[in-house]
Design brief:
By secondary structure, the protein is of the alpha/beta class. Helix content is 37%, strand content 20%. The strands form 3 sheets. It has a 7-stranded mixed sheet with strand order 2-1-3-8-10-9-11, sandwiched between helices. A two-stranded parallel ribbon has the order 4-7. It has a two-stranded antiparallel sheet with strand order 5-6.
Protein backbone atom coordinates (compact mmCIF):
# COMPACT_ATOMS: atom_id res chain seq x y z
CA UNK A 1 0.00 0.00 0.00
CA UNK A 2 1.21 3.49 -0.87
CA UNK A 3 -0.19 6.77 0.40
CA UNK A 4 -0.66 7.83 -3.22
CA UNK A 5 -3.51 5.29 -3.43
CA UNK A 6 -5.55 7.01 -0.72
CA UNK A 7 -8.92 8.28 -2.03
CA UNK A 8 -8.44 6.79 -5.50
CA UNK A 9 -11.16 4.60 -7.06
CA UNK A 10 -9.76 1.42 -5.49
CA UNK A 11 -9.72 2.98 -2.04
CA UNK A 12 -13.25 4.31 -2.48
CA UNK A 13 -14.49 0.88 -3.57
CA UNK A 14 -12.90 -0.94 -0.64
CA UNK A 15 -14.32 1.39 1.97
CA UNK A 16 -17.70 1.53 0.26
CA UNK A 17 -17.82 -2.27 0.53
CA UNK A 18 -16.52 -2.44 4.10
CA UNK A 19 -18.90 0.30 5.28
CA UNK A 20 -21.84 -1.63 3.87
CA UNK A 21 -20.71 -4.90 5.46
CA UNK A 22 -19.44 -3.75 8.84
CA UNK A 23 -21.02 -0.41 9.74
CA UNK A 24 -24.52 -0.25 11.24
CA UNK A 25 -27.09 -1.32 10.25
CA UNK A 26 -25.48 -4.69 9.57
CA UNK A 27 -25.48 -8.18 11.11
CA UNK A 28 -21.70 -7.79 11.52
CA UNK A 29 -21.60 -4.19 12.79
CA UNK A 30 -20.51 -5.12 16.32
CA UNK A 31 -17.32 -6.83 15.15
CA UNK A 32 -13.95 -5.08 15.34
CA UNK A 33 -11.89 -4.88 12.14
CA UNK A 34 -8.11 -4.61 11.89
CA UNK A 35 -6.92 -3.02 8.65
CA UNK A 36 -3.34 -4.15 8.05
CA UNK A 37 -1.74 -1.72 5.62
CA UNK A 38 1.28 -3.21 3.84
CA UNK A 39 2.55 0.36 3.76
CA UNK A 40 5.68 1.40 1.87
CA UNK A 41 7.03 4.55 0.29
CA UNK A 42 5.31 6.05 -2.76
CA UNK A 43 6.93 5.08 -6.04
CA UNK A 44 7.38 8.41 -7.75
CA UNK A 45 8.25 6.94 -11.16
CA UNK A 46 4.82 5.45 -11.87
CA UNK A 47 1.25 6.75 -12.10
CA UNK A 48 -0.27 4.69 -9.29
CA UNK A 49 -3.22 6.29 -7.56
CA UNK A 50 -4.09 8.49 -10.52
CA UNK A 51 -7.76 7.42 -10.75
CA UNK A 52 -9.31 10.21 -8.66
CA UNK A 53 -11.75 11.71 -11.19
CA UNK A 54 -14.41 9.10 -10.53
CA UNK A 55 -16.92 10.94 -8.39
CA UNK A 56 -19.57 11.49 -11.06
CA UNK A 57 -19.58 7.74 -11.77
CA UNK A 58 -20.24 6.80 -8.13
CA UNK A 59 -22.38 9.80 -7.15
CA UNK A 60 -25.04 8.85 -4.59
CA UNK A 61 -23.64 5.39 -3.85
CA UNK A 62 -22.24 6.49 -0.45
CA UNK A 63 -22.58 10.24 -0.05
CA UNK A 64 -20.74 10.44 3.28
CA UNK A 65 -17.77 8.52 1.88
CA UNK A 66 -17.78 10.62 -1.29
CA UNK A 67 -17.55 13.79 0.80
CA UNK A 68 -14.63 12.41 2.83
CA UNK A 69 -12.69 11.31 -0.26
CA UNK A 70 -13.26 14.61 -2.08
CA UNK A 71 -12.12 16.50 1.00
CA UNK A 72 -8.93 14.40 1.30
CA UNK A 73 -8.06 15.04 -2.35
CA UNK A 74 -8.85 18.76 -2.21
CA UNK A 75 -6.73 19.21 0.92
CA UNK A 76 -3.94 17.08 -0.56
CA UNK A 77 -4.02 14.82 2.51
CA UNK A 78 -3.53 11.50 0.76
CA UNK A 79 -2.28 9.57 3.78
CA UNK A 80 -3.71 6.36 5.24
CA UNK A 81 -3.85 7.97 8.69
CA UNK A 82 -6.34 10.48 7.34
CA UNK A 83 -8.85 7.65 6.78
CA UNK A 84 -8.73 6.80 10.47
CA UNK A 85 -9.06 10.45 11.48
CA UNK A 86 -12.14 10.78 9.29
CA UNK A 87 -13.72 7.67 10.92
CA UNK A 88 -14.49 6.09 7.55
CA UNK A 89 -15.17 2.81 9.38
CA UNK A 90 -16.64 2.24 12.83
CA UNK A 91 -14.97 -0.28 15.15
CA UNK A 92 -11.82 -0.31 12.98
CA UNK A 93 -8.16 -0.23 13.95
CA UNK A 94 -5.35 0.57 11.49
CA UNK A 95 -1.83 -0.88 11.43
CA UNK A 96 0.65 1.59 9.90
CA UNK A 97 4.28 0.43 10.34
CA UNK A 98 6.10 0.25 7.01
CA UNK A 99 6.68 -3.27 5.76
CA UNK A 100 10.41 -4.09 5.48
CA UNK A 101 12.11 -5.90 2.60
CA UNK A 102 14.37 -8.26 4.52
CA UNK A 103 13.02 -11.65 5.60
CA UNK A 104 14.10 -11.25 9.23
CA UNK A 105 12.60 -7.79 9.60
CA UNK A 106 9.44 -8.84 7.79
CA UNK A 107 9.02 -11.71 10.27
CA UNK A 108 9.21 -9.20 13.13
CA UNK A 109 6.75 -6.93 11.31
CA UNK A 110 4.33 -9.85 10.91
CA UNK A 111 4.51 -10.68 14.62
CA UNK A 112 3.74 -7.06 15.42
CA UNK A 113 0.81 -7.04 12.98
CA UNK A 114 -0.59 -10.27 14.42
CA UNK A 115 -0.32 -8.90 17.94
CA UNK A 116 -2.03 -5.67 16.85
CA UNK A 117 -4.94 -7.60 15.29
CA UNK A 118 -5.20 -10.23 18.02
CA UNK A 119 -8.40 -8.91 19.61
CA UNK A 120 -10.18 -8.23 16.30
CA UNK A 121 -12.67 -10.71 14.89
CA UNK A 122 -12.16 -9.45 11.33
CA UNK A 123 -8.84 -8.64 9.66
CA UNK A 124 -8.26 -7.12 6.22
CA UNK A 125 -4.83 -7.15 4.57
CA UNK A 126 -3.92 -4.58 1.93
CA UNK A 127 -0.76 -5.35 -0.05
CA UNK A 128 -0.37 -3.46 -3.35
CA UNK A 129 -0.76 -6.54 -5.53
CA UNK A 130 -2.32 -9.16 -3.27
CA UNK A 131 -1.20 -12.78 -2.94
CA UNK A 132 2.23 -13.64 -4.36
CA UNK A 133 1.52 -15.94 -7.30
CA UNK A 134 3.22 -17.54 -10.28
CA UNK A 135 0.91 -17.76 -13.28
CA UNK A 136 0.79 -20.81 -15.53
CA UNK A 137 -0.99 -19.21 -18.45
CA UNK A 138 -1.45 -22.33 -20.57
CA UNK A 139 -2.87 -24.37 -17.70
CA UNK A 140 -4.88 -21.40 -16.34
CA UNK A 141 -3.52 -22.05 -12.87
CA UNK A 142 -1.54 -20.35 -10.11
CA UNK A 143 1.26 -21.44 -7.81
CA UNK A 144 1.38 -19.72 -4.42
CA UNK A 145 4.87 -18.35 -3.77
CA UNK A 146 6.77 -17.97 -0.51
CA UNK A 147 9.02 -15.08 0.44
CA UNK A 148 12.17 -16.69 -0.96
CA UNK A 149 10.48 -17.37 -4.31
CA UNK A 150 9.66 -13.68 -4.78
CA UNK A 151 13.02 -12.12 -5.60
CA UNK A 152 11.74 -8.60 -6.26
CA UNK A 153 9.18 -6.28 -4.59
CA UNK A 154 8.13 -8.69 -1.79
CA UNK A 155 6.69 -5.67 0.06
CA UNK A 156 3.90 -5.55 -2.55
CA UNK A 157 2.57 -9.02 -1.71
CA UNK A 158 1.21 -11.21 1.03
CA UNK A 159 2.42 -14.82 1.18
CA UNK A 160 0.29 -17.87 1.84
CA UNK A 161 1.85 -18.63 5.23
CA UNK A 162 1.09 -15.04 6.30
CA UNK A 163 -2.56 -15.38 5.30
CA UNK A 164 -2.73 -18.56 7.37
CA UNK A 165 -1.22 -16.77 10.38
CA UNK A 166 -3.99 -14.16 10.34
CA UNK A 167 -6.70 -16.77 9.68
CA UNK A 168 -5.60 -19.21 12.40
CA UNK A 169 -6.31 -16.85 15.30
CA UNK A 170 -8.97 -18.85 17.26
CA UNK A 171 -11.61 -16.11 17.56
CA UNK A 172 -11.01 -14.70 14.06
CA UNK A 173 -14.27 -14.81 12.05
CA UNK A 174 -13.19 -13.41 8.68
CA UNK A 175 -9.86 -12.76 6.98
CA UNK A 176 -10.17 -10.47 3.94
CA UNK A 177 -7.46 -10.67 1.28
CA UNK A 178 -7.11 -8.07 -1.46
CA UNK A 179 -6.04 -9.28 -4.92
CA UNK A 180 -5.08 -7.10 -7.88
CA UNK A 181 -6.11 -8.98 -11.02
CA UNK A 182 -3.42 -9.34 -13.67
CA UNK A 183 -3.24 -10.24 -17.36
CA UNK A 184 -2.43 -13.93 -16.98
CA UNK A 185 -5.88 -14.99 -18.21
CA UNK A 186 -9.39 -13.55 -17.90
CA UNK A 187 -10.28 -11.83 -14.63
CA UNK A 188 -13.29 -14.07 -14.04
CA UNK A 189 -11.12 -17.16 -14.55
CA UNK A 190 -8.48 -15.81 -12.18
CA UNK A 191 -11.06 -15.37 -9.43
CA UNK A 192 -12.56 -18.82 -10.00
CA UNK A 193 -9.11 -20.46 -9.92
CA UNK A 194 -8.14 -18.61 -6.73
CA UNK A 195 -11.46 -19.50 -5.08
CA UNK A 196 -10.83 -23.20 -5.72
CA UNK A 197 -7.25 -22.96 -4.51
CA UNK A 198 -8.10 -21.01 -1.34
CA UNK A 199 -10.94 -23.42 -0.50
CA UNK A 200 -8.43 -26.25 -0.22
CA UNK A 201 -6.98 -24.59 2.89
CA UNK A 202 -9.81 -22.36 4.11
CA UNK A 203 -12.98 -24.11 2.87
CA UNK A 204 -15.51 -21.28 3.41
CA UNK A 205 -14.52 -18.61 0.87
CA UNK A 206 -16.46 -16.05 -1.16
CA UNK A 207 -15.15 -13.32 -3.46
CA UNK A 208 -16.32 -10.04 -4.94
CA UNK A 209 -14.80 -8.12 -7.87
CA UNK A 210 -14.63 -4.35 -8.12
CA UNK A 211 -14.76 -3.59 -11.85
CA UNK A 212 -13.91 0.09 -12.60
CA UNK A 213 -10.57 0.97 -14.23
CA UNK A 214 -8.15 -1.75 -13.05
CA UNK A 215 -10.24 -4.68 -11.70
CA UNK A 216 -9.47 -6.06 -8.26
CA UNK A 217 -11.02 -8.67 -5.99
CA UNK A 218 -11.58 -9.24 -2.30
CA UNK A 219 -11.52 -12.81 -0.96
CA UNK A 220 -13.33 -13.42 2.34
CA UNK A 221 -12.01 -16.45 4.24
CA UNK A 222 -14.69 -17.35 6.77
CA UNK A 223 -14.24 -19.58 9.81
CA UNK A 224 -17.54 -21.44 9.45
CA UNK A 225 -20.52 -21.99 7.17
CA UNK A 226 -22.86 -19.76 9.18
CA UNK A 227 -20.57 -16.73 8.81
CA UNK A 228 -20.13 -17.55 5.12
CA UNK A 229 -23.89 -17.59 4.53
CA UNK A 230 -24.43 -14.27 6.32
CA UNK A 231 -21.62 -12.72 4.30
CA UNK A 232 -22.84 -14.16 0.99
CA UNK A 233 -26.29 -12.67 1.56
CA UNK A 234 -24.84 -9.26 2.38
CA UNK A 235 -22.51 -9.33 -0.64
CA UNK A 236 -25.38 -10.29 -2.95
CA UNK A 237 -27.42 -7.42 -1.57
CA UNK A 238 -24.49 -5.08 -2.18
CA UNK A 239 -24.03 -6.43 -5.72
CA UNK A 240 -27.72 -5.86 -6.50
CA UNK A 241 -27.39 -2.24 -5.38
CA UNK A 242 -24.17 -1.57 -7.35
CA UNK A 243 -24.13 -4.11 -10.19
CA UNK A 244 -22.37 -1.71 -12.57
CA UNK A 245 -19.26 -1.89 -10.41
CA UNK A 246 -19.39 -5.11 -8.37
CA UNK A 247 -19.77 -8.85 -9.05
CA UNK A 248 -19.97 -11.66 -6.45
CA UNK A 249 -18.42 -15.11 -6.90
CA UNK A 250 -19.72 -17.93 -4.67
Amino acid sequence: MQNCYVADIGDFGKFQLFRFLFNAPSPMADNTLAQIWFLHENEETNNDGRHINYFQRVKGSDEALEAIMIDIIQRNKRDVKELEKQKVLKNAHYFYPHIPNSYHDRSLWLKEALSFADSCSIVAVAPDNGIALKCHRGEKSFLFLNYHDKKSTPHKYIFDDEIKSFYDVPHRKITIVYQHLGRCFSHDQQIEVLLKKLRISYKHVVAIKHKPYSPRAFFFLCKDKEILEILQNRLKEFENMHSNFWKVYT
